[in-house]
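== Sequence entry ==
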Amino acid sequence: MNRIVVVSNRVQVPAEGSANAGGLAVALDGLMAQRGGLWFGWSGAVNDDIRRPVAMKTVPNPAGGAMHYATINLTHEEHARYYNDFSNATLWPLLHSLPGQMSFDRRSAQVYRQTNARMTDALVPMLRPGDLIWVHDYHLMAMPALLRARGVKSPIGFFLHVPFPGADLLASVPEAGSLVHDLLSADLLGFQTANDLENFAAAASGMAGAVRLSAGGLQLEGRRIRLGIFPVEIDARAFAATAESSWHSAASERLRRSLVGQQMILGVDRLDPTKGLLQRLYGYRRLLETRPDSRRRVTLLQIAAASRTDVLAYQDLRHDLDREAGAINSEWGEPDWTPARIIARAGVRATIAGYMRESRVGLVTPLRDGMNLVAKEYVAAQDPQDPGVLVLSKFAGASHQLTSALLVNPHDPDELADAMDRALSMPLADRQARWQLAWQAIEGATPAQWGRQFLAALIRASATAPKRASAVAPVAALLRGGPLAIAPASASTPARLN
């Protein structure tokens, strides 16, 4: 059977015998374990010795296929310019449609492309004919073209985990047009939502000369490129079981004792400008200002794990968040009541699942987000007999599936306050009905199913490429079933192709 080769910016190599952590690993671990797989990317270490060989580790799997992990280090310049500057200070805010957070430096754009090239050069010797290559996310947008330039004929898929902006905004970064062209060297490009797909198609037509086909997809230089919608999923049933168990834990009991007589509003995010954390506090301030009866009866717990602490925008956000939370607590707090509790560090996933089950309101209000799995986790964590209410940004990809949530514009503090007030006072029957609709949207999906759907679509897309047909012929059995049969798309996990 053909290998799955996953390429991502960062690779977390597990200890032998341990399970992988993280959504992408959960999605692909089972698939790679059955077929054998290679995972390649940055080790997380920074070292200027570029002659250092690729680090390899093999983790045996009882299912049969060995998992191979291959990593390289970044140099200090690559870490500063490829990762911190161009990836996270240019592409990240650009793709999230936040131009005010964006900076651009031509040298950093050059190092981004050079780093993609160095990673490609390290990967190519490890490839085999017929490998299924799956490249992930905005750090590696140049890689599909670089792989083709080095003669790689294997099927290449690319999945963008974050949103894709409109073409006019995209054009504000000089490098963007060439990156769009680079992506078109893949056989399949996957996106979280239909809006992201349409934005990319428009950019590909206007910036790279691609032609929209009447049957969907794109054509460029005689090649057809398939576009697909693959919303990332969680294992909802497993998370629900975790939340129910954790709700009885000592950590959850301590939280309950601190909330006597109060309802909890909970936010769980990375400390990131795209997550709308400051706007969330402005909305909470409006709730306390305009609904005096909510004081002493409600508490906001915001868990905001610090990230990218060496990026200036993230440092500024931490300062502003601390200042606004301090002002709220100073203005309305009492000796026995803290209106806003801010925790700027990561929590244990199981513990947070118990907190989600305890909360009356889940506040997931990013300014823009590709999907936001926290929204789905909040739904899964609820007690079906007494569920909380999800307040969800209409600019999160999850809003396309979780339509029964209270959808809000995170830029409007009054709308946020109205939604929080409505959620806090919502009758039980209404809460149950909304939760049931949300649960039906996610209960049948799993990360592994998401991975299967993408790989099946990649095989179908690459099979239509006449110049590389021989490379995909050995994987045709995958579509017919067997040890890794492809699950069909379900209503809750649409895998739409254009």
Notes: Residues 4-233+446-497 form a domain with the Rossmann fold fold (CATH 3.40.50.2000).
